[in-house]
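User: Fold this one for me? It's N-terminal acetyltransferase B complex subunit NAA25 homolog.
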Amino acid sequence: MASRSHVDVNERRLRPIYDCLDNGNNRKAIQEADKVLKKQKDFQCAKVLKALALLRLGRQDESSVLLQEVHEQHPVDEPTLQAMSICYREVHKLEAIADMYENAYKARPDNEEVLSALFMAHVRLGNYKKQHQTAMALHKLRPQKNPYYFWAVMSNVMQAHSDSKLAKTMYLPLAERMTKKYIEEGKIDAEAAEVLLYLMVLELQEKWQEAVELLEGPLGERVVSELNQRATKLAELHCKLGNWEKANVLYRNLLKENPDHWKHWLKYLNTVFQLIDTGYAQPSCSKEGDGDRTDKVDCSLEEVMEFINQQTKQNKGGILLRGPYLAQMELVRILQERRSELLKLAGPPSELFQQYFELFGSKPCCAADLKMYFCLLTPEELQALIDKFTDSLELSDKSPTYASEPKHICRHITVLQLSRCAGVYARQSVEELLNVSKDLILRYRKGLEFGKDLLSTDLQPSDPYLLFAAYLLVDLWQRTGQERYLWQAVVQLELGVRRSPANFQFKLLLMRLYVEMDILYPIMWVALGIFWLPCAMFGTMLRFFSVNHKETTEYLLASYKYGSFGKIREFVDFREKLQRSFQYKSAATERLLLDLILETNSHTGTEQMLTYIEVDPSKERFVLSELSDNRDFSVMTCWDPPSQFRIRDQEMSFKEEIAWLHCRDLILRILVAAVMAGREATQSTRNGTAHGDSHQPDLTNGTNDAPNLAGMARVVRELLPRFVNHTDACSKEFADPRIYSLQGPFRTRLSAYLEGKHHILFARVVECFLIIYDLQDNGLSNPDNKDSEILKTPVTDILQTLVERSKCSLVKEEDGHASINVALFEHLVMSTESISYISTLMGVCSHLLKPLKAAWSKQTRKKKGQKAPEQPAVFDKFTALIEELQAAAKSLHHAATQFDPVFMALDLSALSLTESLTDTEEEKLCEKAVWSKVERSFQQSSHEICELLHNKLQYLHTCHI
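Assistant: Here's what I get for N-terminal acetyltransferase B complex subunit NAA25 homolog.
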């Protein structure tokens, strides 16, 4: 009773702290905790709650001291342990949670809650072996609770997931034996979780027959967590075993229940042709009137066609289902592919197309469905079919007859999409395409009448007209090279976004067109010279990936808790896929490079920045071959002909992205290693040693056959040839910019980087750093030392070339048409980045040379009657190199100002860079707004490039020795 009273007092004292934390009043929580600790100075829970409040106020150091103090005391009470878990999760110290509960378990081995929390701590860490051990300890503690036993089984499955070598020889057989033991002892609960886990173990071992027996037995009746789950799984297993007649029966019955399940149709047709190929036949196949039997096997083309027709007839009078009609076309496709003589029994494909259009032409999915089966028709048949569809609309392009209801609009749009997929518009002239686009814009505006009462979150029924017109204008731009067509598409899409702000297709295409013209848009910020906004964008991306790990962990805990074992591997696979995402690694690399060039204006600042950049340049940051491509280009509408849409776009783009990421990663690691090497060298010099040697450095002309290089300098020497070899390989494959389809990926900056020889410039400057670094051991170079020549000629020649290419105007004129000279933006930004990286390396070189020059001056101080020795050439050549870099940075700064329309007093809207399509007042106002946005984009790019170059000029000024 006294003990309970003590607990009540503690709870009452802690309640104000909990309330303050819940309300976000962390300062008040600290005050309340201090009040409690004055009365009970050893009150562990109060200390931890104070630590939590300190953590949320950003006082992490103070919080860590309190947590460490309590941690070393090995707390065992549940409130303290829970509060510490929250603290450790917020600072991502998951190992500390496991250690904390491990200590609590040793103190209280009979506490089920502590042991359960320890298991979940190992789940967070992904330590499957300790998961298994902890789950078995729980089972021994509470043998009557099945979940603990199956936690151990699932832990074995996850060990198999992480170790493919021992999966089928140890972990999976052990999981099977453990589960079978419980089944034989009759301990399986009424729920299906344990059965599904056993089924998973059998499938992972490819024991298909045992899995079938399990599902067909009494335990299989418990698999009812999803609709038709047992039948679907059985059908899949019979396909694995090659039991095509049983699989056919199961898929046939599943389709009778749900005729619109497309995957079941594909599997059903596969079983039919497998039966036909094997010559399967049985008496029941020839009987009439047995179509309703549940054990019916369809083993001939006639029976398949009869079954499909039965399913299509069921649609009459009810909701139309696309599945059976698409199955008819899929059947014809298979017969054509197999060159079957039975093809004539299925009828002409054009009739199937006509039937499908009549039924589903007013549905947005119609064009995409029919596009899959264009291969069934010859070009002539396809053109005749589209003409027939067009005539049925009774809409004329020459004298517009507008649609009378939204369904008519949708049917017309379906025909337009099919025409484009068939390549009709590719054969039309420029004038015809322009007229069609104007007509579609008029139809779009007329169709807005049907959407007057719609919400802002709804799409206008006529939106596809405008999207289609925009694609035609893009076609005209790509065909003629005249940018006015592209700007016309931009203006029309901007108008469309105003009327349908929820139409993401407008926004996707608009974004892509702005990117094509190098106008400010998030996806291309860095390439356009916008450096600060990407930091926030990359930070958001990185938080997404961090939160992904945290949230998927919580899903894993819930899956174990509720017995959803089948989801555990899915969550783990999803988490691992995101962790391997090249977008994740690319965002992390670009963010670090931006931090390195934006947050530093001197070498001291760069060294301070390294304390925040957690990069070990001696270790690989990721394995290129394991990175996954998580991009989805299908989200953007594509009505191009199948022959024009290159499926390999994404594969080739991914290869290019990986090459660019590798290049950027090597640049980052070389820069970080160089700065660290410079710090190592100066620290060892101050300590009276050279890179760990006991001798004083020879500052004049000493030589050393085997110089004792510091660790980070050795890393730079190892990384430089890798960088050179990689960029040489890229020059052979990615020298020319790749052009992808508009709905596909956008090219990287790799080709521009190689074309500008920025890789050669960077490599030469790294060599300069290594030469200067070697002076720490080899002594100062003689005036005639050829190695010092690299400090001038190759670097300055490339710099001069880059500067000359930057001296161009914002507006250019070709064939009487004025256009924006956007190609130079990428070149200017790339040159600015190169200057930034070189400045970092020059800062390290200056940091190394200053003490050498001071020591040389001290050793060669003039004495009476002696002539002062000539100063080593390296000092003068380094100073000349710094001056060349400053001159280049100033020239680039001047070039960047030429891209500011305000500075140059340019009014882009008055330059006749485009012309209105329909000449309405609304369109003119929108066009003016677009040019205003373009001007602001160029102005911001110019401002940020100039600001960064000014920053680097200050950086280079500090590098003088």
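One thing worth pointing out: The longest strand covers residues 811-814.
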